[in-house]
Design a protein that fits this description.
Distance between the termini: 45 Å
Number of helices: 14
Number of strands: 12
Number of domains: 2
CATH architecture of the largest domain: Alpha-Beta Complex
Helix content: 25-40%
Structural class: alpha/beta
Order of helices and strands: EHEHEHHHEEHEHEHHHEEEHHHEEH
Radius of gyration: 20 Å
Low-confidence stretches: 291-309
Bound molecules: manganese (II) ion
Length: 309
C-alpha cells in the first residue's frame, strides 16, 4: 500500500469544491494507493466538517489566524488574504508530514497521482511544480535570471518536500521575503514561493497542472490534474468538457443535495453551450477560437464542433 498526503485549504464557501477535489482523487486513484487529505481552515461550519469527514481519510487542521498578525499589523500583506498564506506555513502546520501535495480547490484529479507524488527530487530540490502559462511575463516582472533551472511555477498544484524545507528553514525565508517585498508582489504567496525556491524546483509536465483555457474543446486529452485557474466551472463562461466533468464529480459529493448549487449547475451548463452556439452562428470565429492570446488548433476544434453540435 502506498500512502499519499494531499492538502487543501478551504472555508465554508469552498467546502463543496474541496469535496469535489477529494471525490475526483478517490475515484481515480489506484487500488494500492491510500490518500490522506489534510484540510486547513480557520472557520468551517460543523455541517461542512461532517460532510467532508465522511468522504474518506480526512484530517482537519484548524488554523489560528493570529499567527499571521505580525504581518498584518505593519501593513504588510494588505492585498493578501490570510488563507493564501497557509501554503507558506505548511512545513510547520504539518510537522509530521514528510511530503505534501498542495492543491487549490479549483482542480480535478483524473488519474493516479503516484507518478507525480513519488517523482524523484534532486538533493537541491524542495518542490516539484508546473510552469505557469504566462511564465515569460512573470519571469520578467520578478526580475529572475533566465536559465535552464529557473522557471516560474503556478502554485495551485505543488509537491513540497516538507522535511527538507524544515531542515533548511525555508518557511522563515519565505516570510522574510514576504515582509521585505510585499509592496512589489502581484501574486502574493505564489511570488514568494517562486522567489525563495528559484532554481530548486523540479519542472513537471503540464499534465500535472493542466490549466484550462476558458474555452477549449479537449475531447482527446486526459491530464492527471486539471486546474480551472481562470473562469471557475461554477461560473458562467465558455464551454469546455472539463467544466462539464466538474459537475459529474460534484454530484458524487455529500454536497450534491444543495439546491442552489444544482440550479447554478443547470444555468451554467446551459449558458456554456448557448454562448458557443451563438458565437458559431454569428460566425464570430476570432472570439470563438481566441484563447489566452493564442489561436488553438483550428482543424481539431472544427472536428470537435461537428462532433458536438
Ligand atoms: Mn486555482
Amino acid at each position: 500500500m502506498k500512502t499519499l498526503e494531499l492538502c487543501l485549504s478551504t472555508d465554508d464557501n469552498y467546502a463543496k469544491y474541496a469535496a469535489t477535489v477529494i471525490c475526483s482523487a478517490l475515484k481515480n486513484k489506484n487500488p494500492d494507493e491510500e490518500i490522506i487529505f489534510h484540510i486547513l481552515y480557520s472557520n468551517l461550519a460543523d455541517k461542512n466538517i461532517k460532510k467532508l469527514d465522511k468522504m474518506g481519510n480526512i484530517i482537519f487542521h484548524k488554523i489560528d489566524n493570529s499567527i499571521f498578525e505580525p504581518y498584518f499589523n505593519n501593513g504588510v500583506c494588505k492585498n493578501v488574504t490570510i488563507p493564501t498564506l497557509y501554503r507558506l506555513k505548511l512545513p510547520s502546520l504539518l510537522p509530521d508530514t514528510k511530503k505534501i501535495l498542495y492543491l487549490d480547490c479549483d482542480v480535478l484529479i483524473l488519474n493516479s497521482l503516484s507518478d507525480f507524488y513519488f517523482c524523484e527530487l534532486l538533493e537541491s530540490q524542495y518542490a516539484a511544480c508546473v510552469p505557469d502559462l504566462a511564465q515569460g511575463v512573470h519571469l520578467e516582472r520578478m526580475n529572475f535570471n533566465i536559465n535552464k533551472n529557473n522557471f516560474y511555477f503556478n502554485a495551485g498544484v505543488c509537491l513540497l518536500d516538507l522535511e527538507k524545507m524544515r531542515r533548511d528553514d525555508i518557511e522563515q525565508k519565505m516570510f522574510d521575503y514576504l515582509y521585505n517585498n510585499w509592496q512589489k508582489l502581484s501574486y502574493s504567496d505564489q511570488d514568494v514561493m517562486n522567489a525563495v525556491l528559484l532554481g530548486h524546483v523540479k519542472k513537471m509536465s503540464r499534465n500535472y497542472n493542466f490549466i484550462t483555457p476558458n474555452f477549449y474543446f479537449v475531447n482527446n486529452c486526459k491530464p492527471t490534474i486539471v486546474h480551472f485557474a481562470g473562469v471557475k466551472p461554477w461560473k458562467i463562461g465558455f464551454y469546455n468538457n472539463f467544466r462539464e466533468l466538474f459537475w459529474e464529480y460534484y454530484m458524487c459529493t455529500p454536497f450534491s443535495d444543495d439546491k442552489t448549487q444544482i440550479s447554478t449547475m443547470k444555468t451554467v451548463l446551459f449558458m456554456h453551450k448557448k454562448i458557443c452556439q451563438i458565437l458559431w452562428f454569428l460566425k464570430m470565429y476570432p472570439l470563438f477560437f481566441l484563447q489566452n492570446g493564442r489561436l488553438l488548433d483550428f482543424k481539431r476544434i472544427i472536428k470537435n464542433i461537428e462532433f458536438n453540435y
